[in-house]
Design brief:
Number of strands: 5
Order of helices and strands: EHEHEHEHEHH
Shape: globular
Strand content: 15-25%
Distance between the termini: 30 Å
Number of helices: 6
Helix content: 40-55%
Largest sheet: 5 strands, parallel
Strand order of the largest sheet: 2-1-3-4-5
Radius of gyration: 14 Å
Oligomer: single chain
Structural class: alpha/beta
Amino acid sequence: MYCPGKEECRIMPENAGNPNILLVDNDRIVIEALADLFKRILPAVNIADSATSGVEALKLLTSNADQYALVLLDMSLEGMQGPEVCRRMRLMDCSTPILGMTSFSLNRYRVPLAAAGAQGLVGKGDETQLEQAVSRVLSGCFLPGFETPMAAYAKLKCDTQAES
């Protein structure tokens, strides 16, 4: 379900408990800064694990997928870029939402990330947008131009089988 307005989509549902996030960014300082930021703007959210590479993030998701309410994924990673990490994650997991983030232009990553199965893309530089995007995705919504984890998974599975 696409949730265009706050009125249709609760921000951080009360029954959400303390949702765990897997935070993926190639820069440890950014990971620490985002963890501190989340303590301030979304104190109910818990950064459960972090990874500095796509390979490390895939390993964490493989062994802990049921523990994460959200993967917050940087687009500019060493080795394997964010959209490819997202695609691999989505093919492994049909339910965990993935929210891309970048300090580059959103236009650079929006289309490839949507095709890779994410539920949204947000800039790292705007605290308010970051807070709103994380809250919306955690409450079961997705951002314009994206789709649900299950719909994205189904589309990727079909595309992957068609290529074989």
